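Hey,
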Amino acid sequence: MTVKFGTSGLRGLSTDLVGSVSALYSTAFARHMLESGALKPGSPVVIGRDFRPSSPEISSTIMAAMKRLGLVSIDCGTIPTPALALYGASIGAAGIMVTGSHIPADRNGIKFYRPDGEVNKSDEEAITRLAAALKDDADANKVEAGSGTAGEAEAAQLFIDRNLGILAPDALKGKRIGIYQHSSVARDMLVTVVEHCGATVFPLGRSEQFIPVDTEAVSADTVTQLAHWSDELALDAIISTDGDGDRPLVADEHGRPLRGDLLGLIVSRFLKAKVVATPVTSNSGLEQDGGFAVRRTRVGSPFVIAAMEEELSAGETGVLGFEANGGLMLGSDFTIGDKTIAALPTRDSFLPALAVLGTAADRGLSLSELVDDFNLPVALSDRLENYASERSASLMQHLRASGDHLSAFLSPIGAVESVSDIDGLRATLADGRVIHFRPSGNAPEMRCYVEAANKEDAEDLLKQGLSLLSSWTA
């Protein structure tokens, strides 16, 4: 069994999660909720899933496990993760979302929600301990087919209604917006919401086979396809999400994806946020360009949410968080016109996408012009796939062991000025460029993030960084 908690939920090979492992961990989660008093016998648990081939079987196993524990499953079907979380919060229910987000279909995952929001790291540790204690318990590992009462229509409508009030009904009138649907569970909702705002919508690339779309590291093939659609259909923008609909993808009129941290900056201004929590991987220009206080965190929604909670406990208002992938978390309620958007401390893709489209339309700018209007360093990122966890751990241990080791490793690129190890190793070079190495918490991948004054320098730095990672041997 190789499943483990990463930056966002439990992850592992689909072959490991199908069967007793999903029964075991969902049982451990439910037991933890019951023992902590967050749930009691007869409490509801909302359960959703993405379009991966393994997701229906895993969710069925989970619903059977909930029944054995005396809990009531509400089957929300294929639905975006933020929609499931919103529905759960509205009825005081815990939640379980079966999804591997953006990773390939041979992997999957499970995200757990308390009635008041995402589980935190201490919850994950408690679930892991309970799973270990129950690993030989036949009942906890039992694989049965379960079902739940229908909740998909009600949950979906609640989420749609939330998003219909973000922009005025004619805010995007005259705009031609493509919706890259692929295998996202948000694909039909996006069409409904964007059409409501007055745009002419073009559904694109719908697939019945699961396509892993990483909004933080958009593949070259996807970028080429986006550019083709934009040119062929004269589009003003293309929007999409990852597999479970909690990370946005927004591309300009040329099909070029906007960085997620820029989306976060724009939506923070759109909502007039006062405090923003965001990981160390987000653009370093936020502190200078945002007009709000910034709290830097480790990578992963639990860390961003924890920082938001600390700010709220200190009496701050207007608190939100976002990740470099663009996923937005609202710690506070926010007001847009005469509508209140309730706090939703889990990643959401709809609000940031709508805020960007609405801001550009309101200012009479194309998306590329809106991007150029921000004075941020050029930030790029990419990853090396199939980079064994043992290999990345060995590299990070070597680089952390001595400043001389890091300096020698980066010597082909430049001299090290300063280092941050909030999450991975982020080095600011003597010429102001930034390079950041971080093992993925969700998959056997090594990520590289860079910043430079212009695109050419950033691309060159990213290429050099990936080359150093690729050539590393323990």
